[in-house]
Amino acid sequence: MKSLLGSTFSLLLFISVSAFANSNTLVIPVSDNGKYMVDQVQADWIVEALDQAEEQGYQRVILLIDTYGGVVFSAREITERLLRLKIPTVAYVETKAISAGTFIAFACDEIVMEQKTTMGDAQMIMQTAEGIEEAPEKFVTVYRSDWKKSCDEKGHSFAIAQGFFDAKVEVLQLGEGEERQFILRDEYDLIPEKERASIAKVISKAGQLLTLHSGEADELGIAREVDDFESFLEGMGLKDGDLDYLEMETNDQILRFLGANGWLFFVLVIIGLNGLYAEIKAPGFGIPGLTALICFAIVFGSRYMLGTASSLEIALFVVGVVCAAIEIFVLPGFGVFGIASLLLVFGSLLMASLPDIGELPIQNDLQWGWVNGLVLNLTGAFISSFVLFAIAVPSLLKLNYVQKRLLATELTAAEGYVMDTVKDRGQLKGTCGRAHGDLRPAGKMLTESGDLLDVVSDAGYVDDDTAIQVVSIDGNRILVRPHSMES
Asked: How far apart are CA 274 and CA 391, in angstroms?
């Protein structure tokens, strides 16, 4: 996984960390800020921060956790780095550590919970056409192994952890005090009856996911309950001056916003496509082209930073746009280049937005769910863009109410304005004239009657003053070719 901000981010983080050279504890927030989940932006940022903390010689790292969870694959990157960190870590639950938040907490050396906070409900789920469902065993088995690895490494109860993420298990407590231990019902039933210890209590019933408040977690020895962060620091022998609070830079927050709001991707694609349509219809480079450039720069740039896009997707998109231009200006109609353009643009946007779904070909519902969701969103964006550009906008501009406000004055004959009109564009077929300037392949034609028409050559480049003739009308385009080419 490439670094989110590369060397620039590392430099900024180095400067911010170095500014607190006398600090011995780095505090990193794992927060959804009331609107986000654990995502790839946050994962890359936290992993980079942990790298810098180790390099700068910090004595301790505190993760301030307040999240409802998020993407398991992103959370896994955080837990993998925590397990390999050579610095003691503390997970401090400020309000809630739900789902991926609990997963991350269990990768820390110690878990501390402020009063009235909550931890648990960590089942791995997926979005399908039928709704939210439990993830297939192919993914859960890796998730289960990660939990086991964290529990073995940090000394947490794996039986309790399974109660958090597996609703099928029943978690039991055997014994009390120092003799207390936790075990699953299935494992307990395998113990010979004479060797079984008595069951002190059922911690989590089968069919229910385990979620604990701070008092329960403290009672079970899963976490330590404290009144507030200040009392926690006192218990650790720390002062506020010993802490270095790390916060996301503005560019990270913007990137996180872009990645978390799928509707924004949808809107940017619609606006960008309409800009491309308009720019291709009116050759040159103006406001529509600039708008399209900005929109797709945001789309591909954000996906590149998020790690789902590469230079390949960007190259495919550019080739798709070039194919569209060839189809319109060099080989009018809708043939190989038109189909290739549609497939390349659509495919590049799909690939740029698709997260790592594991091995190909696609083998399970979770992978198909990701792909199908993106295909539907992109298809909707393409259709909406076409409807907006080809139907909605032209219809809107024809309304009297709009026309009166678009035209500053009414150009009447009485005021000296005269304009020739062509009642039936079909009557232009066969009209002869000369190229008024080069046709590249779009340009002007001066007819024998003295009219100046906007035309497109279907024979490629045509020199100035070449004899040409209108051969067909394609929508709002007048197609011409050199007169000598006519039979």
From this structure: 12
